[in-house]
Amino acid sequence: MDLDRSAEAPRRFRDIAGDILASWRLELLQLALPLWKNLTFDRKASLALEFGDAVVVATQILDGRATDTVEIERASGDHRMLSGRLAQLSDLQSASKDIALRLPANAALNCHVQMPNASRRNLVQALRYELSRLSPLEPEQLYFDFVVRPAPTDGKMRNVALRIVKRSLVDEAAGICSDAGLRIASIGFTGDPRDADFRQFPVNKIALLRTLWRRWNVPLLGGFALLLAGLLLVAAYLRHIEAGHALSRELDTAQGRAVFVEYLQRKAQTALAESAFLIRQKQAPMLTGMLADLSRILPDDTSISDLTMDGDKLRLAGTSRSAADLIALLDRSGMFANAQFTAPLTQESRTGSERFDLSVEVRRRAP
């Protein structure tokens, strides 16, 4: 029973912690979504003006949504009154002076033509000649733009969607907006999601750029900040790699120096060993000198049959008329010490000499 209770407590704690974390996640999402909308949408209202034959519909747009709509009647030929109303409306609503101009859908003629596969600049020049065939008006009296379909009909020809608008209609609406102190950031047509080409229509380029900036400044700045953060990480990583390479080079240099030092140590040890050997050799008696000393010390009736040297120990074996006197002779020589027989003396019956076997220490000479 106690085991069940001890296992139940951690499970209850995990369940409670999971519920708390889930609640926090929902609250953070609810706070983050409005904040994201506030950052990504332009907080200043803008106007969209739709010019009809009888009325002008002014729509206030805030946060990407239409919030207010006002209809202004158009008096025939009275452009001054209309521009004054539009200026007053933009002032009252504290809206941006950069507006989106919308024209009726029937103001544009849409058609498709087959054109050679060429650059856009060449297509513009070629389409100017097509306008005289497609419209009863002169090309100088028309605005046009076009879209090249992504899939060509064959290898040489391309399908071009052409949109033609009467110039006087666009210029009239643009003049009214200009008199009201408004700047056209885009021109569109009712029911058509594609805006007119700003290179072919009278769009204020600065107003267009300003509108695009107000719409996308926060995402662009956020992306730029992320790019800078990524570049900083890359720079830190590259600095880390360079530091690692520098450390590796220092380690290689240190290892090379260590190998050289070890080589010098080995050379020094070898030189010391050779020097010690030379010193030992210099201190050790020369064999020829030792034999010369023996021949000088030993009497003429003494002959050596066996001579062995082990370090500083010299072993002599041979015959002598008076072998007992050899011990004293060797000790008094100054070259040898501690002479002693290693075996009993034996008498040779034929010659009367004594056979001996003795050992003696060889004294080292001063260097």
Shape: rod-shaped
What is the CATH topology assignment of the largest domain? Nucleotidyltransferase, domain 5
Mean pLDDT: 80
Distance between the termini: 96 Å
CATH class of the largest domain: Alpha Beta
Order of helices and strands: HEEEHEEHEEHEHHEEHEEE
Overall tally of structural domains: 4
Structural class, judged by helices and strands?
alpha+beta
How many strands? 13
Integer-rounded radius of gyration: 58 Å
Low-confidence regions: none
How is the largest sheet built, in terms of strand order?
3-2-1-4-8
Question: How much helicity do the residues have?
Answer: 40-55%
The biggest beta sheet is recorded as:
5 strands, mixed
Number of helices: 7
* CATH architecture type of the largest domain: 2-Layer Sandwich
Q: Roughly what fraction of the amino acids lie in strands? A: 25-35%
Description:
The chain is α+β, with helices and mostly antiparallel strands and 367 residues long. The chain folds into four domains: 40 residues; 158 residues, Nucleotidyltransferase, domain 5, CATH 3.30.420.380; 59 residues; 76 residues, Gyrase A, domain 2, CATH 3.30.1360. A five-stranded mixed β-sheet has the order 3-2-1-4-8. Helix 2 crosses helix 4. The protein is rod-shaped. It starts with a helix and ends in a 5-residue tail after the last strand. The model has no long low-confidence stretch (mean pLDDT 80).
